[in-house]
TrEMBL record:
It is found in: Cytoplasm, Cytoskeleton. InterPro entries: DCTN6, Trimer_LpxA-like_sf. Transmembrane segments: none annotated. One of its GO terms (cellular component) is dynactin complex. One of its GO terms (biological process) is mitotic spindle organization. PANTHER family: DYNACTIN 6 (PTHR13072), DYNACTIN SUBUNIT 6 (PTHR13072:SF0). The keyword Cytoplasm applies. It comes from Ascodesmis nigricans. Coiled coil: none annotated. Part of the dynactin complex that activates the molecular motor dynein for ultra-processive transport along microtubules. This is Dynactin subunit 6. Keywords: Cytoplasm, Cytoskeleton, Signal. Belongs to the dynactin subunits 5/6 family. Dynactin subunit 6 subfamily. It comes from the Eukaryota.
Length: 234
């Protein structure tokens, strides 16, 4: 007995075991069996014959929209960074954009200040048409996701941190790895978020010393990361 025959056989048993009342059930005749066979065979073959929906090849996908970009002459931007969106993206002087960092202006414009560092696989996306502003001396580490309205000067966003849509983060804050800031949240200047969401204000430490340190990091990165600004200007 073939696969279809077995299927038919078991369906028949099922019908019989349900004990359908004779006034509603069709009498089982050779012709209903034949119809049944035809249907099961068609279904069976059909299900085998339906081809898998073909996956669109990358070349068939619509290209990501290219934003208008304003990139300062002195920036370092890896060829492997990605800038997509419909709204303008501005990047200030001496800012470093690592390979595989993503800047997405689909929802609104993005402005990044001077001496910022945007690390590998960090994602920076404007929350809405009012845009996202990252002030100067901001360091955004690997895998961070920033959808804030604003990130204040001198703030460090460490590995894997998520800043929700429209949040406002003050100046000189430090958000330690994997912490999360909720949508529309406001974080005061000089806040340190550590551990699992614990917070304190830390106004110790010199702002100038921190700036100098960031400038040194930027200088070092300029030697390390091959830059291709022209790729994004066309
Ligand atoms: C079943 O299919 C065959 C050929 O595919 C056809 O000749 C026959 O009439 C069909 N039988 C019924 C009951 O539909
Ligand atoms: C920069 O990118 C452009 C466009 O992709 C390319 O033609 C050019 O060769 C690249 N320049 C360098 C120095 O890699």
């Amino acid at each position: 007995m073939g696969a279809c025959g077995k299927l038919e056989h078991s369906l028949l048993h099922l019908l019989l075991s349900l004990g359908l009342p004779s006034n509603t059930a069709q009498p089982i005749t050779t012709s209903t069996l034949a119809t049944h066979r035809n249907i099961t065979e068609t279904c069976f073959q059909g299900s085998l014959a339906v081809p898998m929906a073909p996956k669109p090849r990358p070349s068939e996908l619509p290209p990501a929209p290219k934003p208008v970009v304003h990139l300062a002459q002195s920036i370092v931007i890896s060829e492997q960074a990605s800038l997509t969106g419909n709204f303008p993206i501005r990047v200030g002087q001496h800012t470093v954009i690592h390979p595989r960092a993503k800047l997405n202006s689909l929802a609104g414009p993005i402005t990044i200040g001077d001496f910022c560092i945007v690390s590998e696989r960090a994602l920076i996306a404007a929350p809405d048409q009012d845009g996202l502003e990252i002030e100067s001396y901001v360091v955004i580490e690997t895998n961070a996701v920033v959808e804030a309205r604003r990130v204040g000067e001198g703030t460090t966003v460490e590995v894997g941190v998520k800043i929700g849509k429209g949040a406002v983060v003050g100046s000189n804050c430090k958000i330690t790895p994997l912490n999360k800031i909720e949508e529309s949240e406001i974080v005061d200047d000089s806040t340190v978020i550590y551990g699992v969401g614990q917070r304190r204000i830390d106004i110790s430490g010199s702002r100038d010393a921190r700036r100098k340190l960031t400038e040194k990091q930027v200088e070092a990165l300029k030697q390390l990361i091959p830059s291709n600004r022209t790729k994004f200007m066309s």
